[in-house]
């Protein structure tokens, strides 16, 4: 239907021959990868390997020096994709002098969430990240982990078809981390395409497929089992090291 969101099968991500250079520094080199619709795809790599730079380009916040990125059939960056992509940055983009509820209201209107659905959806996402009791608190009084959780709630608010999460569970305790991952898996099954960066190996195991980045290059792509089998490794960490990665 014209003007309607695409069908689930259209919401994949295609990255083709992407370079990103900052001055003389080549931060991403010839990255090509495909995230299939409704897949949970993990980007794994040590600090400084280029994960954030790559997800920013995919989300349309930064632009490649060379190469193309297509999300949901649309070449990025495109301002009108804002409402279709949920992006959670590594540093929280929150208004600290507002309450959580006020932040959610602001982003809900920015995303064009119909006001009828707004209240209910805000309650749902806050419940999901276990912040219901802190809805009216000023964000300046939130801990680091609470801010991460609120950022995640905001990224989920408009039920985006594509969810891009940059280290979403940093500073979040193991029990809540497990419940957030359960929810991400459920969203994947329900048709959301999810791209997530992580340092955490047990999170990597929960992804359908993984891309391993080192020094701005993609050194391996596959399911966790494929990557382990290919390198005769017992764990993803061992596989990563076998592919030439370094510890994060
Ligand atoms: N705006 C910029 N100008 C110059 N260099 C940059 C810029 N943004 C990123 N870089 C460099 O690009 C490289 C990759 O950074 P990036 O943040 O993408 O890595 P990362 O894998 O996400 O690391 P981390 O896990 O620590 O977040 C780093 O060497 C960083 O210093």
Automatic annotation (TrEMBL):
Keyword annotations of the record: ATP-binding, Nucleotide-binding
Domain (ABC transporter): residue spans on this chain: 13-240
PROSITE patterns in alphabetical order: ABC_TRANSPORTER_1 (PS00211), ABC_TRANSPORTER_2 (PS50893)
SMART domains: AAA
Highest taxon listed in the record's lineage: Bacteria
Keyword Nucleotide-binding assigned: yes
Molecular function as annotated in GO: ATP binding; ATP hydrolysis activity
Cross-referenced PANTHER family: ABC TRANSPORTER G FAMILY MEMBER 20 ISOFORM X1, ATP-BINDING CASSETTE, SUB-FAMILY H, MEMBER 1
The protein, known as: ABC-2 type transport system ATP-binding protein
Organism: Alicyclobacillus macrosporangiidus
